[in-house]
Amino acid sequence: MTQMMGKQSIQFEKAPHILCGASIVGKKEGEGPLGKLFDEIEEDPMAGQASWEEAESALQKRAAQMAIKKAGPSCGPVRYLFAGDLLGQLIATSFGVMDLQIPLFGLYGACSTMGEALMLGAMTVQAGYADTVLALTSSHFASAEKQFRFPLEYGGQRPLAATWTVTGSGAFVLAPKGGKARISGVTPGKVVDYGLKDSLNMGACMAPAACDTIYQNLVDFGRSPSDYDAIVTGDLGSVGQTILLELLDKKGFDIAKQHLDCGMMIFDAQSQDTHAGGSGCGCSAVTLAAKLLPMLEKGQWKRILFVPTGALLSTVSYNEGQAVPGIAHGVVIEHC
Amino acid sequence: MTQMMGKQSIQFEKAPHILCGASIVGKKEGEGPLGKLFDEIEEDPMAGQASWEEAESALQKRAAQMAIKKAGPSCGPVRYLFAGDLLGQLIATSFGVMDLQIPLFGLYGACSTMGEALMLGAMTVQAGYADTVLALTSSHFASAEKQFRFPLEYGGQRPLAATWTVTGSGAFVLAPKGGKARISGVTPGKVVDYGLKDSLNMGACMAPAACDTIYQNLVDFGRSPSDYDAIVTGDLGSVGQTILLELLDKKGFDIAKQHLDCGMMIFDAQSQDTHAGGSGCGCSAVTLAAKLLPMLEKGQWKRILFVPTGALLSTVSYNEGQAVPGIAHGVVIEHC
């Protein structure tokens, strides 16, 4: 049986298992609807460090160490690390994982990076290139605001379509066996550009990419939306969700019953003033670790399509008048 | 036979082939020692675009299209793309590959990115996840100066340890068969930090990482330096080379006879005023395409270790007083 499925997907003959996930988040995320589910809540936005960037690195390191500890000694040393973040030149990752001394594949897929890390990690494990790998991403509200938007002190107003970057890091240990969930297939996504230029409406920018990947996943695997207990996008937020459902409906798939969005799950938009929802590489990562993975592990869900979504922009591309294209990667996770 | 070799390497049972490489460079690179070997020389630093970043994107797109054309129709459509560049949030890549409409794994390993792309591309092909993949990276002197250093108009003086970012893009098509070179193994590298803080002496910052990866490759595969016709680092330059040879010598390996550095090959430092050598994601990529790969294809070399090297810094990490750690990825390429 070939492992290539349709136009752009892969089905794993020996689906790599997710041994465990670990999550660490900031204070605001801890106060949200998923607050009690996270492994650790760091109340100090600086995480005891000297800068926002070092704080984000510290979160990555702690999430990685927590996941390795949870996996236990029986799984052996982690052979390869697949990791990334939102900051220019991935500095949160480079400085975060340095002490781990694990060979690193540095990844950038904007907020879709956890999808990319899980895909490549699973591809590596099932091919026999490693017995244990770690998938790791992070984001930090303040380091992201500094990177992409305005100084916090400026106190700029945010439009209602804007999302709030999650402070947090999620880590997952993948191995050939163990654990109660496995990655049975993946659908790597393409860069999709609808020409939208509003970097404060990233949900709208990313929705076409999410549509493209979900559509292709359903076609490649010959599935209907009801074959999934949930189809969970990364951080489209409420504005992006509306667009996604409409776009997929036009392509013949109604996923209204299955669709969830990590960005909408992690904050209570009304009481927490986060507008359209949460976002960032950490958003889908910690939501998977704290909420989605346990639902699969307990068997409350049998199979989900996890689709982290990324908006591909930098301050340079934005200031030069470029559009904000999107990318989304699909990961099929099943109870086992 | 297991595919895992030693502590951190992989040996491919069915070594993926490099069908072809393609290179496009700027005017200065075209005037250098390898000038006549590049597929295309773009005399216009803007490549007909409106900004340096768009110019770099255009080079990526043209290199990718050239490689696909060279590979010919028999190799079928490219299923996955492994690509990256030096710019924050990989904008040269995102906007460069958009029109290709190929599922993208965005990679960041600083100037080591071509190593990362070739490793993951080879891992993907030999596992049967794709019949054809493309590995692609780029850099641009002006977009890199803008990203990392000073405005060009400022005319800042450069110390002798500094390197000159190569304007260029290299692309490689990998497939299970065809072509006259193959990737027989890989050694993904760790982040290595010796605490050096001089971002204008990146050769010194990266040499310890190159040493670590080359050492591990020799140990993992049980080889001595003479088992390679050449051990070619990415962009250590003359200062980094001296350090690398000394560090490896202390670990018991003398690679003086085998060592070459793409950064030292691509420019004539004396006449072209490039100081320690060339650098950038494009440097090792175009040197591999134009010089190293043809040497292997013709059988003048039987086996080389290609080791692109990256310096992990951003202006933020530098301004916050962080060190400049390095990373290096090893790719074993053989004549076949």
Q: Brief overview, please?
A:
2 copies of one chain form a homodimer. Chain A is of the alpha/beta class and 336 residues long. The first copy, chain A, contains 11 helices and 17 strands.
For the largest beta-sheet of chain A, the strand count, sense and barrel status come to: 13 strands, mixed
Largest interface: pair, residues per side: A-B, 61 and 61 residues
SSE order of chain A, one letter for each helix or strand: EEEHEHEHEHEHEEEHEHEHHEHEEHEE
CATH superfamily of the largest domain in chain A: Stage V sporulation protein AD
Number of domains of chain A: 2
Regions with little confidence, pLDDT below 50 for 5+ residues of chain A: none
**Helicity range of chain A:** 25-40%
Rounded mean pLDDT of chain A is: 96
CATH topology of the largest domain in chain A: Peroxisomal Thiolase, Chain A, domain 1
Assigned CATH architecture of the largest domain in chain A: 3-Layer(aba) Sandwich
Alpha carbon gyration radius of chain A: 18 Å
- The rough form of chain A would be described as globular
CATH class of the largest domain in chain A: Alpha Beta
* Cα end-to-end separation of chain A: 21 Å
Category from helices, strands and their pairing of chain A: alpha/beta
Report the count of strand segments of chain A.
17
Number of helices of chain A: 11
Q: Tell me the strand percentage band of chain A.
A: 15-25%
Oligomer class:
homodimer
Describe it.
- Two copies of one chain form a homodimer.
- In chain A, β5 (80-84), α3 (91-97) and β6 (104-106) form a beta-alpha-beta unit.
- In chain A, α2 crosses α3 and α6 (202-221) crosses α7.
- Chain A contains eleven helices and 17 strands.
- In chain A, strands 1, 2, 3, 4, 5, 6, 7, 9, 10, 11, 12, 14 and 17 form a 13-stranded mixed beta sheet that branches. A two-stranded parallel sheet of chain A has the order 8-13. A two-stranded antiparallel ribbon of chain A has the order 15-16.
- With 336 residues, the first copy, chain A, is an alpha/beta fold.
- The first copy, chain A, folds into two domains: 4-175, Peroxisomal Thiolase, Chain A, domain 1, CATH 3.40.47; 181-335, Stage V sporulation protein AD (Peroxisomal Thiolase, Chain A, domain 1, 3-Layer(aba) Sandwich).
- Chain A is globular, with a radius of gyration of 18 Å.
- Chain A has helices at residues 27-30, 52-71, 91-97, 113-126, 141-148, 202-221, 237-250, 262-266, 269-272, 281-297, 315-319; strands spanning 4-5, 9-11, 17-26, 40-42, 80-84, 104-106, 133-139, 164-165, 168-175, 181-187, 230-233, 259-261, 278-279, 303-307, 309-311, 326-328, 330-335.
